[in-house]
Every structure is written in C-alpha cells, then in structure tokens.
C-alpha cells in the first residue's frame, strides 16, 4: 500500500504487470497477422507444432484425471486436432471459417460435465481459439430476470463477463418453460442465440443438462439446436469405472482401502447403483465422505493409540455400516 | 476543427483493433472501463453522459468493445469516449481516457470578446455546435 504510483507520468516501479508477455495472449489474431506466411511448398513438423501448443498436457491430464468417458475424450481430441490443423492452414494463408464450437453436454448427474467444461476452456485457450480461457458457470437465475426489462441487461452482463472464455450454462433446459408463455426465459434464449451467432469469435457457449430434458428443450428451440455443432453425450459409468473413480478420490484425500475393504467397496457401489437417485461420481464422493465420518468416529470410540496406518486406512466396517447394506429386500 | 481531448487525440483515430489493445491494457491493470458520450464539445464539459454503468468484472476486451459499438450505434454523431478508472489507493482517478468516436463534421469554436468592468476584455470560447439544441447538433 506504500507504493506510490507514477500518476501516469513515469513507468511504475516494478512494471511487471505491464510486460508485453501479459498483453500478447489477448490478441492471437493480431499476432497471427504479423507472422510471416509460409511458402506454398514449405513442410511443417506436426509433432513439433503439437508440442508447442501444449495442448497435449491438457489432453493427457484429461485422460489421467477422468475415468472412462471415451466418447467425450475422443470428441475433444478431434476438436483439438481440428484447431491445430486450422492454425497451420492459416499460416499457409489458406482461409477457412472459424469452426463453430458451441457445445451441448448431456448426461446423467455426476458424469463429469462441469469438470470437462473447465478442461475444455483451458484447452481452447492453449490452442488459441479463445483469448482468456476462463469459465463462467451460470444457471437460469443468473440469466433470467424477475420483471419486465430485467432479463436483457442481466443476460448481456453475463455474456460480457464470459467473453474471451467459455460460458457454461448448467441445467439449460430450465431456461425455457413451455407451460408459461410469458416466462422471461425465452427472452434470455433469444439474446443468447444472437450472441452465439454474431460474436462467435468472442465466446464459446456450453449447455449442459440431463439428456431427456435437453431433448425436450431443443424440440421447443430448434434454432438453438442447429447453432450447436457438438452434441456430446456423457455415458453412465460402469461399476468398474466407479470403483476406479473412488480409488482416485481416496488417493487424493490421502486415504487407502484395507485389502479386505476393496470387495466391500465394490459391493457397496453395485448396490448403490440400483437405488434411486444415483448420481454417478457424485454418489461415490458422498459415499467416501460418509465413510470418512465413520472412520473418524471409529478411531475415537476405539480409544487406542493410533499411528499413520490407522489414520489413512478405511476398513470394511466403515462401508458396511451404510444404509445401502441394511436396506435389503 | 478536429478536437483534441484525452489520450491519443493528436494521433489519427484509433482502429477497433487498437482500441481493443488499449482496453486489454486497462483490464490487465485492473481498471474498470466505462463508456461515455456527449454532443457538447466544450473542453470544460467534463461530465459526459454515461452509457450504462462502469463495467466491472470484465476479463476480455471484446465485452467492452461490444458496449462501445452499441453506444456508437445509438449515437452515431456524438463524441464517444472510453474511460478507465484506477481505484488503487493513492491514485483513485481516471487512468486512461480517449475518444473512440467523433462526429463526421466538427465545426469548431469561435472566440467571443466581452467587455467587463473597467474596460477589461474577457475572451471565451464558444463551440459552434452549441448553437443548435442538444440532440441535433451534429445531425
């Protein structure tokens, strides 16, 4: 706070925030224009290009951190490849339209839609498609106003905040309420459509929601459906994948399963899957949270001295106490 | 007569790309931008009309440029300027302000001589644009 700024007359002391490095990513287009065009007979090393874009880091992280989701990963790899090739084409001076990257993620709860959206923003930023790479996550409440004339400014405000990045609309089907024709959601959709069409350079819109309700939403808004190029479906996880997710989560939290707890955990997941309101990875997280509670309680109740192994190991009892096992037939 | 107010006013008018670069610079520094317009070109007219509220929480120049374009569309023959405010302690003032649109024709100013007490002469400047009512000064 003691730093006395220069009142615009001299450069500020440290000047670090004014470095050209900070400013350049804001204008990839200007940068590309400045670059020399390649000769028509030039050869470009694709592997080298790929390395420079650093997209592989994000893609590999996506592979490592997210279990399963093969169709999603394939589509995202395809998009990354397209953007890379487009960039090369522009260096040869081949004009090609900017690809339409608005997307729709459909899938059951807890299948990783939001997580993928965050990674996607980072990936698109590395490939120079968007300038900032931030994700603005909104729901109906952030877009739709409460009274006449409130919706348009509210929606525009959100869109402006998302410019240069990705706008993620969770549970997008709530935007349109078929039963109420005076609902302001329709107005938000119209503004959204207009911006998706006219400012394609400035932001990527990702809609997310459950499959059946999104289908109904698109049936009522055909304009929206046709403006979205990529409809990606997130499949439900198999028990094996859920187990892998569980192990990944435990590892991150610094827990391990006792060897006899592994089959119990699998059994738990199988039973939980058949119950109503199963939310895939989110249910796994909740199961682990509850196991942690029981684990802590068990240690305190035991009253014996504990060491590192006791503190990090979850035993079968921590899972067997669950309602899922008692609630049988 | 081309009026010169704010930063860059002795340069040729900035293109949209150049304006974007300036906005990006302001946003890098954490200065919220706002758009203002007027049709009173007098140099002492410091309070221009605000085009919406100052834009906080913006991270990209495109959003600010969008508002500039909206303002240009609504007031095609007004002066429009972009103002970036530095809220840092010890500064708390406009950090950057420049014109992003000017009317096609700027009639300029005349000097009015006025005799006051003791045969003193005062001179004041009068923009020709002010001879017409607000709203159709540059139509």
Automatic annotation (TrEMBL), chain B:
InterPro entries the UniProt entry points to: RuBisCO_ssu, RuBisCO_ssu_dom, RuBisCO_ssu_sf
The keyword Secreted is assigned to this record: no
Top-rank lineage group of the source organism: Bacteria
A Pfam entry, by short name: RuBisCO_small
Gene Ontology biological-process entries: reductive pentose-phosphate cycle
UniProtKB keywords: Calvin cycle, Carbon dioxide fixation
All residue ranges annotated as the Ribulose bisphosphate carboxylase small subunit domain in the record: 4-103
Transmembrane segments annotated in the record for this chain: none
GO MF annotation terms: ribulose-bisphosphate carboxylase activity
Misc. comment: The basic functional RuBisCO is composed of a large chain homodimer in a 'head-to-tail' conformation. In form I RuBisCO this homodimer is arranged in a barrel-like tetramer with the small subunits forming a tetrameric 'cap' on each end of the 'barrel'.
Entry similarity comment: Belongs to the RuBisCO small chain family.
Assembly information from the UniProt record: Heterohexadecamer of 8 large and 8 small subunits.
HAMAP family per record: RuBisCO_S_bact
Function: RuBisCO catalyzes two reactions: the carboxylation of D-ribulose 1,5-bisphosphate, the primary event in carbon dioxide fixation, as well as the oxidative fragmentation of the pentose substrate. Both reactions occur simultaneously and in competition at the same active site. Although the small subunit is not catalytic it is essential for maximal activity.
Protein's name according to its UniProt entry: Ribulose bisphosphate carboxylase small subunit
Source organism (scientific name): Actinomadura rudentiformis
Gene that this polypeptide is encoded by: cbbS
């Amino acid at each position: 706070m003691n730093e006395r700024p220069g009142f615009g007359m001299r450069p500020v002391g440290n000047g670090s925030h004014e470095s050209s490095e900070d400013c350049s990513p804001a204008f990839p287009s200007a940068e590309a224009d400045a670059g020399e065009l390649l000769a028509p007979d030039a050869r470009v090393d694709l592997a080298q290009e790929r390395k420079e874009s650093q997209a592989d880091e994000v893609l590999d992280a996506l592979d490592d951190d997210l279990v399963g989701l093969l169709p999603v990963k394939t589509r995202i790899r395809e998009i990354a490849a397209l953007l890379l090739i487009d960039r090369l084409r522009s260096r040869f001076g081949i004009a090609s339209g900017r690809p339409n990257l608005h997307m729709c993620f459909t899938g059951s709860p807890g299948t990783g839609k939001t997580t993928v959206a965050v990674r996607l923003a980072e990936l698109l930023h590395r490939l120079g498609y968007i300038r900032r790479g931030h994700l603005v996550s909104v729901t109906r409440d952030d877009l739709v106003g409460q009274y006449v004339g409130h919706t348009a400014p509210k929606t525009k405000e959100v869109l402006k905040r998302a410019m240069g990045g990705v706008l993620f609309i969770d549970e997008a089907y709530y935007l349109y309420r078929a039963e109420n024709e005076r609902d302001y959601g329709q107005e938000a959709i119209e503004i959204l459509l207009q911006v998706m069409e006219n400012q394609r350079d400035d932001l990527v819109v990702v809609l997310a929601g459950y499959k059946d309700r999104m289908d109904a939403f698109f049936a009522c808004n055909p304009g929206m459906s046709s403006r979205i190029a990529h409809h990606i479906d997130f499949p439900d996880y198999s028990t094996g994948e859920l187990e892998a997710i569980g192990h990944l989560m435990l590892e991150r939290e610094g827990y391990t399963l006792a060897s006899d707890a592994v089959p119990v955990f699998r059994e738990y997941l199988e039973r939980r899957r058949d119950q109503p309101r199963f939310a895939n990875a989110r249910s796994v997280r909740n199961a682990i949270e509850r196991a942690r509670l029981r684990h802590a309680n068990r240690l305190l109740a035991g009253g014996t001295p504990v060491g590192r192994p006791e503190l990090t190991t979850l035993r079968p009892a921590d899972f067997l106490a669950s309602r899922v096992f008692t609630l049988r037939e | 007569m081309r009026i010169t107010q704010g930063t860059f006013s002795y340069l040729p008018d900035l293109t949209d790309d150049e304006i974007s670069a300036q906005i990006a610079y302001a946003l890098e520094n954490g200065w919220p931008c706002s758009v203002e317009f007027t049709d009173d070109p007098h140099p002492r007219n410091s309070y221009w009309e605000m085009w919406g509220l100052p834009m906080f929480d913006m991270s990209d120049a495109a959003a600010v440029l969008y508002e500039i374009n909206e303002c240009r569309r609504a007031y095609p023959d007004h002066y429009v300027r972009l103002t970036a405010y530095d809220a840092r302690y010890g500064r708390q003032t406009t950090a950057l302000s420049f014109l992003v649109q000017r009317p096609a024709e700027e009639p300029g100013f005349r000097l009015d001589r006025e005799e006051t007490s003791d045969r003193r002469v005062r001179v004041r400047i009068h923009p020709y644009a002010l001879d017409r009512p607000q709203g159709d000064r540059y139509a």
